[in-house]
Amino acid sequence: MKATIRKTRKLESLTFIFSFLLLVLFLFVFLTLSNMIFKQILDDFQGLINTVENRAVVSSIFLSLYAGFLATLIAFFLGAPAGYILARFDFPGKSLVESIIDVPVVVPHTVAGIALLTVFGSNGLIGGPLEAYIQFRDALPGIVVAMLFVSVPYMTNSAREGFKSVDPRLENAARSLGAPLWKAFLFVTLPLSARHILIGAIMTWARAISEFGAVVLIAYYPMIGPTLIYDRFLSYGMSASRPIAVLLILVTLSIFIVIRVLSAGWSIYDRD
Fold first, then answer.
1. Per residue in 126-135, pLDDT tens?
2. What is the pTM assigned to this prediction?
3. Which among 69, 99, 189, 216 has the fewest CB atoms less than 10 Å away?
4. Bond prior to 222 in cis (omega within 30° of 0)
5. What is the distance of C-alpha 126 from the center of its chain?
6. Structural domains in the chain plus CATH codes
């Protein structure tokens, strides 16, 4: 009985410590963002209204969201199948493949931008031969490939963990009933991994729309949100760049909240 009480007290102490650390983490993020938002509203609310009505600002934010969506869509079609192979099969060089796919997460993004220029620039490995058909430098395709490069590991890794969480015997059962592998994947494995893939898509899209270093080197124009904020800060200072930053935060935060609320109802895909 005494041992049980001591164990319970230890659990309560651990819960208290972890709850305190959660509070610290929450306050760190919340205070940083809310301070900027409320400071903008209290000091210059009209400036925020003018920013909302500024066509160039709205276009740049929309371009960020749209290019991020395209990058996420491509990441899904590339990353989900790659995650399935990495989750289900062992092959020579698998660790090397996983390491290389993860490199964009750790490489400095200015380095990523230079590397992308050598491939998709006017004289690049791919951009050169395709220049007559598709323009990457200072164009939407360049923005998308930059966003895709830095964000696709999130989709691949999340999909891989999702597929790993699905018992292969469920696939085998579907195949024993006559379903081909592609049908077992579409109707068994993919739905059971949907929550992981959704989380991967959210992280991929979030990483894509926040990218600056790689994008600014390959496609300074047309300006996405982060590039416009940087340009306004260099040209006019904090007073001109902060309202755009606040608007971008409010837009992305609203979208994330909606996605989180909608995804909370996906209990049908829970593993249990």
1. 998 988 899 9
2. 0.86
3. 99
4. yes
5. 25
6. 44-269 (1.10.3720.10)
